[in-house]
Amino acid sequence: MGNPKAFLTVPRQEAGYRPVFERINDYSEVEQTLNSSDRRTQASRCMDCGVPFCHWACPIGNKQPEWQDQLYKGHWREAYYILEQTCDFPEFTGRICPALCEKSCVLNLSIHEPVTIRENEVAIVEMAFKEGFVEPVNPVRNGRSVAVVGSGPAGLTVANQLNRKGYNVTVFEKDELPGGLLRFGIPNFKLSKKIIDRRIRLMEAEGVEFKTGQHIGRNVAATQLTSSFDAVCLAIGSEVPRDLKAEGRELKGIYFALEYLGQQNRILQGIQVADDERISAKGKNVLIIGGGDTGSDCVGTANRQGAKSVTQIEILPQPPVDFNPATPWPMWPQILKTSSSHEEGCTRRWSLTTNKFTGDGKGNVKQVEIEEVEWTQPTDGSRPEMRLTGKKETLDVDLVFLSMGFVNPVQDSIISELTLATDNRKNIAVDADNRTSAANVFACGDAVSGASLVVRAMASARQTAIAIDKFLKD
Hints:
The chain is built from 19 helices and 13 strands.
């Protein structure tokens, strides 16, 4: 390392967010950036720790110490070349990854001040684009073709990997534009869609073909893919949200979180949404059920739309701040996370379950009954048990968003057409190489694992690309 003792004198410095009063009025990215000098100083904090747990914790195996050292020395080009070897899209992960690497950083484990790995990562790739280090590659074609179904993080990654191996890759996307969850799930204030467009243009320049509005099993026959391409990769995500079985669920004004987020992103993209279908929080009391990142995204979106009040409830207990003895490293730390959206205005409550919704007599949701719960840990080491306390409360609500995660990977007619599952939506059957029960069909990302992190979907896609390459070469 260039300066193995910098961590002793240089404190962690984050770029932070734009002021609340400014960012609450737009959908531009909230996160700021450090100047190049401060960024290099932050990279110097990467110590000569001997065993880089950051590398171990990263699903795609980023070589953080190596590119941190190059960044510290001012070698931006070299830093980018090291980074791109393991990460196809650092401009995405550098913005939205929860940074498993930082949770495993020795400086986090010792003094709770990890290296700013995620911020350094996005700084490197943005400098690379700015200075022209990122250039289209022209692979030597091998005459084989692969169809990729889905253009989210997994689909883009497997397409990128196979294209650069010389395959003719065509990506089929059911939505209006490529990007999947990145485009229609993550708000613009966390990930500008210009960043996605820039990458898509680069991939097209390298030979990847994108076909949007192509819903396999509806307007495109699935068997057409298996017969027209040498291999098919399903990167169709896990899009079925977990529903809430509560009285009054059918009332108007209750939506799944991604219905809301996806629609707002479409509007910002200039895609037409009928007035009577628009979901607006303006002047309304908004309730978000679910305490995760997607729920937080609903908070930020509702505030930008001018909500009267925003409340987010979670069925689990409130986690501790900074350190949780119940989840020591190397477990993922279950600690209190306060997002930029929470800072913009939100009432957060824990240990609450939803009993029922009541309407206004016209079919619209008007109130919700919630009840406090208690969690106990059985002495036999089994899972915690929930108990209703009888302490009930009624909240006035005009708009409710369900953000409770997703069920097991289930898909539509594309699966049954490819004999991967039946009409009653069974899971995709895959082997260790993510090869399905259909002869030349593979799957990757959330379609295999269930809803997970963008970086894990990318890791799965890279492994699947290797398996497809091996399959077509054998």
